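User: Hey, my collaborator sent me this sequence without any context and asked if I could get a structure. I don't really work with proteins. Can you help?
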Amino acid sequence: MHEGLVGLALGAGALAAVNPCGFALLPAYLSLLVLGDHETSRRRALGRALLLTAAMTVGFVALFATFGLLLTPVASEVQQHLPRFTVVAGLALALLGLWVASGREIRFSRRGRHGRRPLSGSFWSMAGFGVGYAAASLTCTIAPFLAVVVASFRADDAVEGSLLFVAYALGMGAVVGTVAVAVALARQALVGRLRSAGRWGPRVGGVLLVLAGGYVAWYGWWELRVLAGRSSGPDPVVDAAGSVQRWLADAVSAVGPGGWALLLVVMCGVALVRARR
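Assistant: No problem. I've predicted the 3D structure and written it out in structure-token form, which is a compact way to encode the shape of the chain:
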């Protein structure tokens, strides 16, 4: 396999984390990560951030693989309905944020040994969030995924396709994981202040969820208007968010997948050394 294809898959995966359609879901994910983090140990907080990032990445690439390998023949028909899902997902996230901002906590109804578990503390709930992240991002990122990864599968080279698929997932996971670990460690460093903030800390996280969900819903509505021919001019909200997204994409590209992976390893190593001390 040509090394350039692996680098291309890594880069495509890294940029998928900050794609124009769904990049607002990245701070939403970080808000959920913080809201559900009740760990007092730095090592356990680090493990939780890595586990949930892996769950979210698995959900993201699983939907892409399903869409790319199974739904390609009807991709054009399916893509016409994706903005509707984006609107629904954004509104659901905004409602979730309103619930949290009002001072309520979201937990599973099933009780375990430690009582009801926070929604954002479950592997499968974060995998589901990754599926929603992917569904909102399909319109913007499915073309590079199909060109880089699925083309190898369809060329009857399953080994190469599998390796490129893993590279794509690692590229996204490196970016999301680095940011998630940084947020988790920052929360541990500020745990005293967060506790003193009391009920206002979760409310701020809820407001962030409302803003992120509102933008995702707005973007999906804007896509529907463009597809229907009812909007041809610039949208001030999408344009403003687009400038932020382009800055993030440039930053991700400047660091590169290898740089993000190195940052992730270094942060994890430093956190583990400090935890042992």
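In plain terms: The beta strands are 107-112, 115-118. You can pass these tokens on to your collaborator as they are.
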